[in-house]
Structures are given as structure tokens and as C-alpha cells.
């Protein structure tokens, strides 16, 4: 079965199990692949996310789909007084993150982004990098994030998006559809996982549509910026006071 067919055939409940197993498999080489695929830029994007989160002093932040904890670390680097929870359903990814022991205490927790184990209004900011392409239900995911945010809190969402048109689009297809799967095979030994990546970008909403989805789920002041020749979008928005 081809990758795209396999993906389409997954029901939403199976999809979560498929995605978490995939990330558990690639956990040991995940960070290295990120650095290579982003040409060394990914940590800069996470620092930008931490800035956009605008946490108050000693504020509470949730790094959802924390993986190996790099967004959480960027938050603590920016403000060591922050209380940062990193949550993910791929436990092996978080184990790698724990071993890195980076930039202060991150509280790692196993959790599904579609049913967060936190009370309403728990966090000043919810951030996530590379989550929404993988989640089975985008609207339900944003609804959960809205629920756990305090009034006035901020959500920051980073994702890979297809660039609009022109030569950057050609370059993008060449890179993500030809080079990345090969790189994934060599570096992580898992061509399948890195073939899944461009497939998941193709069916992901463009930044304008994603903004509308966020607004539909109750967020206000939705805005986004594009980075890396337009192939990365960072959306940010607030929950009304
Ligand atoms: C591409 S990794 C991103 C990791 C990290 N945010 C980063 O910046 O590198 C995607 C992560 O999302 C997690 N994930 C996907 N769907 C999830 C869900 N429904 N609930 C919790 N975690 C999820 C995966 O397990 C994986 O660790």
C-alpha cells in the first residue's frame, strides 16, 4: 500500500496510535533530522515562538506535542522563571528530551492533544511546533487548547505549509518530496516516516484557512508570519479576557 493510501485509510483513533508509534521509532535521530531539514534554522523558529508567547513573569506555559522538548527549552531560555509543562503522546520522544536536561526544569507528561489532562484556564500560553499536521481533528485540537488557556492567554502554532507559488514551490517539492525521504532513510533509517511528512503537508490547510479555523474555535487577534521562503508559518492568537 502506498503511503498516501495508508494514511487515508486510517480512522482518527488509529491515526493517533500510528503517529505516536512513528515518533517513538524516530526519536533517537529526531533532533539531528530537524537540524538537517531546516538547514539549522529550527531553533531560531522556536525562539521566535517563545517571544510571541509573551509569558508574564513566572507564567505557566504548555508546550504541546513537545517531542524532545525544544520549544519548552526555548521558553525557559527566554525566561527561567517560567513554569513549563511539555506534553506529548510519544513517550520515547520525551525520554530523549529528558536526557538532554536542557535549560531548566521541564515537567514532561504523557497526554493526547485531543483530550488534555488539565483543568480549564490552566495556562498563560499554549505553544506547539509541528503538531497540527499530525493531529486527527484540527478543530477539536484548537478547542482543547482554548479550553486550557487562561482568559487573555496566547496560543502559538508553528507548522510547515506549502509555499504559495513560483520557484519556491518547485524548490519546496524537490526538497520535501525527493530529498527529505532519502535523508530520513540514511539518518534515521526510516524512509516511511519522512515520506509521511510531505504527505501531511499537502492535506494541511493554508495559513489563511488555518487562521479562520482558529477564529472559528474562539481565538481573537489571529495573525501569522511566514519564514523559510514561506514554507513555515507561525500563527499566534489570544483568548479574550
Ligand atoms: C514533529 S514532532 C514535533 C516535536 C516538537 N514540538 C519539536 O518542536 O520538535 C510532532 C510531535 O507531535 C506529537 N503528537 C502528534 N499528535 C499528537 C497528539 N494528538 N497528542 C499529543 N502529541 C501528539 C508526536 O508524538 C510528536 O512528538
Summarize the structure.
This protein has helices at residues 3-8, 12-37, 42-53, 70-78, 91-100, 138-148, 167-188, 191-202, 207-216, and strands at residues 60-64, 83-88, 106-110, 123-129, 149-160, 220-227, 232-238. It is α/β, with parallel strands linked by helices.
Describe the structure.
By secondary structure, the chain is α/β, with parallel strands linked by helices. The chain has one domain: 3-Layer(aba) Sandwich (Rossmann fold). The protein is 49% helix and 21% strand. Strands 3-2-1-4-5-7-6 form a seven-stranded mixed β-sheet, with helices on both faces. Helix 2 (12-37) packs parallel to helix 5 and helix 2 crosses helix 7. The longest helix has 26 residues, at 12-37. The protein is globular, with a radius of gyration of 17 Å. The site of S-adenosylmethionine has 22 residues, from helix 2 and helix 4.
Helical content stands at: 40-55%
Q: What's the β-strand tally?
A: 7
Radius of gyration: 17 Å
CATH fold naming: Rossmann fold
In what order do the strands lie side by side in the largest sheet? 3-2-1-4-5-7-6
The structural class is alpha/beta
What is the CATH architecture assignment? 3-Layer(aba) Sandwich
Shape label = globular
Helix and strand sequence: HHHEHEHEEHEHHHEE
CATH superfamily: Vaccinia Virus protein VP39
Task: Look at the structure and give the mean pLDDT.
Answer: 91
Largest sheet: 7 strands, mixed
Question: In percent terms, what proportion of residues is strand?
Answer: 15-25%
Amino acid at each position: 500500500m502506498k503511503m498516501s493510501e495508508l494514511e487515508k485509510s486510517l480512522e482518527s483513533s488509529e491515526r493517533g496510535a500510528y503517529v505516536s508509534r512513528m515518533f517513538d521509532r524516530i526519536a533517537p535521530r529526531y533532533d539531528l533530522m530537524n537540524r538537517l531539514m531546516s538547514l539549522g534554522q529550527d531553533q531560531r523558529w522556536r525562539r521566535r515562538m517563545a517571544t510571541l508567547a509573551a509569558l508574564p513573569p513566572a507564567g505557566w506555559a504548555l508546550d504541546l506535542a513537545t517531542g524532545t522538548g525544544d520549544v519548552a527549552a526555548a521558553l525557559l531560555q527566554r525566561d527561567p522563571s517560567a513554569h513549563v509543562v511539555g506534553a506529548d503522546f510519544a513517550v520515547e520522544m520525551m525520554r530523549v528530551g529528558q536526557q538532554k536536561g536542557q535549560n531548566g526544569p521541564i515537567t514532561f507528561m504523557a497526554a493526547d492533544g485531543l483530550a488534555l489532562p488539565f483543568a480549564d484556564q490552566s495556562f498563560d500560553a499554549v505553544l506547539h511546533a509541528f503538531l497540527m499536521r499530525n493531529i486527527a481533528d484540527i478543530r477539536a485540537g484548537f478547542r482543547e487548547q482554548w479550553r486550557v488557556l487562561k482568559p487573555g492567554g496566547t496560543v502559538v502554532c508553528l507548522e510547515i505549509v506549502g509555499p504559495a507559488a513560483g520557484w519556491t514551490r518547485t524548490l519546496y517539492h524537490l526538497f520535501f518530496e525527493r530529498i527529505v525521504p532519502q535523508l530520513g532513510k540514511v539518518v534515521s533509517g526510516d524512509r516511511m516516516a519522512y515520506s509521511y511528512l510531505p504527505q501531511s503537508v499537502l492535506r494541511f490547510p493554508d495559513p489563511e484557512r488555518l487562521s479562520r479555523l482558529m477564529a472559528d474555535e474562539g481565538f481573537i487577534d489571529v495573525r501569522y508570519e511566514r519564514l523559510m521562503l514561506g514554507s513555515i508559518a507561525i500563527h499566534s492568537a489570544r483568548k479574550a479576557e
